[in-house]
Amino acid sequence: MLDDFLIRAMLAGLGVAVAAAPLGCFVVWRRMAYFGDATAHAAILGVALSLALSTSVFAGALAVALAMALTVSTLSGRGYAMDTLLGVLAHSALAFGLVAVSFLQGIRLDLDAYLFGDILAVSRTDLAVIWVGVALILALTIWRWSPLLTATLNPDLAYASGIDPKREQLVLTLGLAIVVAVAIKVVGALLIVALLIIPAASARPLARTPESMAVAAAVIGAVSSLAGLRLSFLFDTPSGPTIVCVSAVIFTSTNLVARVLRANA
């Protein structure tokens, strides 16, 4: 069954959607879109380093994404404006990554595959790496769900409950770095944040509890992946961007429905 590239692509898309959904909810709640953007952009530098050192692309992207996330978390509390810091680090990391790629000799590299994704080229090994990452993210999220939620809603309440918000921030940072590493082959570094944010933002008007929002985001992400792949196959369009386009249409639809329901209530 896994000999069929479309089956592998569907499984990869479903895996990334399931992994991104709960973390995407925290990104939306904490208004961390630019944080995720900086982490994703840094992954290109990780790809270049991993190819230069002949190591796993997943390992390189994960290491650099995690280093970027930790750097942002550390510097943000030391007098640096968050938006300025993220803008400098995100675009600098992307630029250094693109320059580093140009120095690679004797290596054929389709840069578009890492910028915009190449889900149709997912191999069995890629699929195994993606689902191992999914398992790690789900285990981490389930384990820390309550502390993460408390720290997100009210840091003072978290302190009173014996929860360290900075520690939970590091947990979320680790999860985001893993998502970036597993999703770079599916939607690419430039569109990873869209897959994090749009399904969660689409689920928000429909959900009454944080848990239901995470589940709804996973369903919307899965539908977007499958429908995007189908449309990409039918119209010969880039798969990663098509998946994000479907997510955007669902976001518009759910928000319009929510507004109509509120107006008629």
Short description:
The longest helix is centred in the middle third of the chain and has 30 residues, at 124-153. With 265 residues, the protein is mainly α.
What are the defining features of this structure?
265 residues; mainly alpha; 11 helices; globular
Describe the structure.
The chain has 265 residues and is an all-alpha fold. Helices cover 80% and strands 0% of the residues. The radius of gyration is 18 Å and the shape is globular.
Strand and helix layout:
Blueprint: H1 5-30, H2 33-52, H3 57-75, H4 82-102, H5 111-116, H6 124-153, H7 155-160, H8 165-183, H9 192-203, H10 210-235, H11 239-264
Helix pairs in contact: 1-6, 1-8, 1-9, 1-10, 2-3, 2-4, 2-8, 2-9, 3-8, 6-8, 9-10, 9-11, 10-11
* Helical content band: over 70%
The number of helical segments is 11
Strand content: under 5%
Order of helices and strands: HHHHHHHHHHH
Mean pLDDT metric: 87
